[in-house]
């Protein structure tokens, strides 16, 4: 069993649950963006010649395609054949290109609940950033759309329409990360064929990703417990973690959330419920451990939620029943303990498939 126990300094985060356009009214500018973005420790890339070469290749491809006379010179696509690695690529791309973690408004994470207005608002923000960039010179900003393949047909059409509406002279590149299977033509493939980026750095991701993620300002508040098989002691390790903390101080609470459906919406709803209850009884500087137990069959979007927390200290998800998004923000006194389902079922399925093929 692997157990993650990161430690580093915390800084304040931007709460993007407030309207983006409220920031504009308060004099939102490029200076605000530069001051807000959390800079990643660049020593990782400074000591790695392979990463330097990949960084050069990435920027060169984007710059060359910008200058070309292609249909959408600011929209690029990266096709990834393994769903589990998409967020790894996103993190590494931002590290190499922007040398920072992205702000929430720079990324649209798509799922089955994504609404047309989510896409339209995202492109409105993108266009506004371009206006700021135009007036403030060069700054390595990057916008991204993740899991475009999960969109409904209606949202896919709106995404295509929005990409076609982008001004030829926009300054900031946008990358669409899309899962695809070999020999399968995706809905954006033909549209963005000339904007395809050929970047292969999987080995460097495997070697350097953990170091980069540890730069996250709230990484010390997120602990993930997982194992390959049932009965390897995930729950015991969580109890031990809390007990070790108790020996140092008694000023803490422990709460457990057992998810039934294992969706992001369910997790946000239960986190809001439990933190609202605790606020009424909360003591000053009391540490709150929230143990989140996932069911064996949980949503594939759960990894997106943990990634959002690591990047921004908050989770946001479109609410299909309302125009408002569901949102939860981590407080500085909260420590999240994620108990991830074991991989036994997945292993058994792959094993049975390989046996049937051999027959």
SS-based structural class?
A: alpha/beta
Summarize the helix and strand pattern as letters.
EHHHHEHEHEHEHEHEHEHEEEH
Per the principal axes of the C-alpha atoms, what is the gross shape?
globular
> CATH fold name of the largest domain, please?
Rossmann fold
* Number of structural domains: 2
How much is the radius of gyration in Å?
A: 21 Å
Helix content: 40-55%
Number of strands: 11
CATH hierarchy class name of the largest domain: Alpha Beta
CATH architecture descriptor text of the largest domain = 3-Layer(aba) Sandwich
With strands numbered from the N-terminus, the spatial order across the biggest sheet is 1-6-11-8-7
Strand content: 15-25%
The CATH superfamily of the largest domain is known as P-loop containing nucleotide triphosphate hydrolases
Note the total helix count. Answer: 12
Mean pLDDT: 72
| Low-pLDDT runs | 1-39, 344-359
Please, could you describe this protein's structure?
The chain is globular. The protein is α/β, with parallel strands linked by helices and 359 residues long. The longest helix is centred in the middle third of the chain and has 21 residues, at 116-136. The protein has a 5-stranded mixed sheet with strand order 1-6-11-8-7, sandwiched between helices. A 4-stranded parallel sheet has the order 2-5-4-3, with helices on both faces. A two-stranded antiparallel ribbon has the order 9-10. It folds into 2 domains: 39-213, P-loop containing nucleotide triphosphate hydrolases (Rossmann fold, 3-Layer(aba) Sandwich); 219-347, P-loop containing nucleotide triphosphate hydrolases (Rossmann fold). β3, α6 (116-136) and β4 form a beta-alpha-beta unit. The two termini are 33 Å apart. The model is unreliable at 1-39 and 344-359 (pLDDT under 50). The chain has helices at 20-25, 30-36, 43-46, 49-67, 86-97, 116-136, 153-164, 202-213, 234-248, 264-281, 302-312, 344-358, and strands at 2-3, 75-80, 107-109, 143-146, 174-179, 222-226, 252-258, 287-293, 314-317, 326-329, 334-339. α5 packs across α8. Helices cover 42% and strands 15% of the residues.
């Amino acid at each position: 069993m692997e157990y993650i126990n990161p430690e580093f300094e915390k800084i304040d985060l931007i709460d993007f649950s407030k309207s983006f356009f409220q920031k504009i009214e308060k004099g939102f500018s490029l200076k605000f963006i530069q001051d807000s973005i959390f800079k990643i420790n660049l020593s990782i890339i400074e000591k790695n010649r392979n990463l330097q070469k990949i960084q050069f290749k990435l920027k060169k491809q984007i710059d060359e395609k910008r200058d070309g006379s292609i249909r959408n010179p600011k929209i690029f696509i990266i096709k990834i054949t393994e769903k589990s690695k998409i967020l790894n690529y996103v993190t590494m791309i931002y590290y190499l290109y922007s040398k920072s973690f992205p702000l929430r408004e720079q990324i649209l994470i798509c799922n089955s609940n994504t609404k047309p207005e989510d896409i339209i608002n995202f492109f409105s923000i993108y266009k506004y950033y371009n206006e700021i960039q135009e007036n403030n010179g060069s700054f390595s900003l990057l916008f991204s759309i993740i899991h475009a393949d999960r969109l409904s047909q209606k949202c896919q059409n709106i995404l295509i329409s929005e990409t076609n509406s982008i001004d030829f002279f926009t300054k900031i590149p946008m990358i669409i990360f899309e899962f695809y299977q070999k020999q399968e033509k995706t809905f954006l493939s033909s549209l963005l064929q000339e904007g395809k980026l050929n970047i292969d750095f999987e080995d460097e991701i495997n070697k350097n990703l953990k170091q980069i993620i540890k730069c996250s300002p709230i990484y010390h508040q997120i602990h993930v417990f997982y194992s390959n098989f049932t009965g390897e002691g995930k729950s015991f390790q969580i109890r031990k973690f809390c007990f070790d903390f108790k020996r140092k101080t008694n000023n803490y609470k422990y709460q457990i959330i057992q998810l039934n459906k294992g969706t992001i919406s369910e997790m946000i709803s239960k986190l809001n419920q439990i933190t609202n209850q605790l606020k009424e009884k909360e003591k000053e500087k009391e540490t709150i451990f929230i143990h989140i137990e996932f069911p064996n069959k949980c949503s594939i979007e759960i990894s997106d939620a943990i990634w959002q927390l690591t990047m921004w200290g908050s989770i946001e998800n479109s609410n299909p029943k309302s125009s408002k998004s569901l949102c939860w923000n981590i407080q500085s006194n909260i420590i999240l303990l994620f108990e991830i389902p074991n991989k036994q079922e997945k292993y058994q399925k792959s094993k049975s498939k390989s046996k049937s093929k051999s027959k």
